[in-house]
Amino acid sequence: MKSYRKELWFELPTRRGFVNITPQVATSLKESGIMEGIILCNAMHITASVFINDDECGLHDDFEKWLEKLAPEKPYAQYQHNGYEDNADAHLKRQIMGREVVVAVTGGRLDLGPWEQIFYGEFDGMRRKRVLVKIIGE
Fold first, then answer.
1. Which 8-state DSSP code applies to residue 78?
2. Which of 40, 50, 55, 68 has the most beta carbons within 10 angstroms of its beta carbon?
3. Residue 111 backbone dihedrals phi, psi, to 5 degrees
4. Are 128 and 9 in contact (CB under 8 A)?
5. What is the rounded CA–CA span in Å between residue 41 and residue 14?
6. Would you say 15 and 127 are in contact if contact means Cβ atoms under 8 Å apart?
7. Model confidence over 65-106: pLDDT tens digits?
8. Long-range contacts for 79-88 (Cβ within 8 Å, ≥24 apart)?
9. Which among 11, 40, 14 is positioned nearest to 98, based on CA atoms?
10. For the structural domain made of 2-137, what CATH number should be given?
11. Cα 74 from Cα 85, distance rounded (Å)
């Protein structure tokens, strides 16, 4: 069995945003040479997420509005975590959207459903963060 590890780096210019990382993950898979196995993609920061969903801008706007209703950024004083930082809402949003995804590799390709794409979700941006891509298989 082989394994391959790669880090993808992101620095969004806004506090929150979603980035389709499916092409970067597919490139990582090609680099690995693995034809059958699994890919783990996980955010290496506790205020970011990796998730699978449809790449549709209206849906992304819905995520933003829904998450902001569940864990509003302001007022900062509403959160006990916010003392030296102002990102408690980002921690909560990450819990909702998830830390990682696992995708099957079949025939050297990502084995995703017809509309599925892999996304990086940023909830406390404007600084460099990374996603781990770990591929294992044959």
1. G
2. 50
3. -95, 75
4. yes
5. 22
6. no
7. 999 999 999 999 999 999 989 999 999 999 999 999 999 999
8. 87/47, 87/123, 87/124
9. 40
10. 2.60.120.460
11. 13
| Sequence spans of domains, the chain | 2-137
Q: Report whether 49 contacts 126 (CB < 8 A).
A: no
Return the residue matching tokens 């992101």.
10
Longest dimension (CA), the chain: 51
Tokens standing for residue 77: 């004083």
- What is the SS3 assignment for 49? strand
> Could you give the CA distance from residue 6 to residue 134 in angstroms, rounded to a whole number?
7
State the amino acid at position 25 in one-letter form: V
Q: Is 35 exposed, middle or buried (0-12, 13-18, 19+ CB in 10 A)?
A: middle
Q: Which amino acid is at 7?
A: E
Q: What is the pLDDT of residue 84?
A: 85
Tell whether pTM > 0.90.
Answer: yes
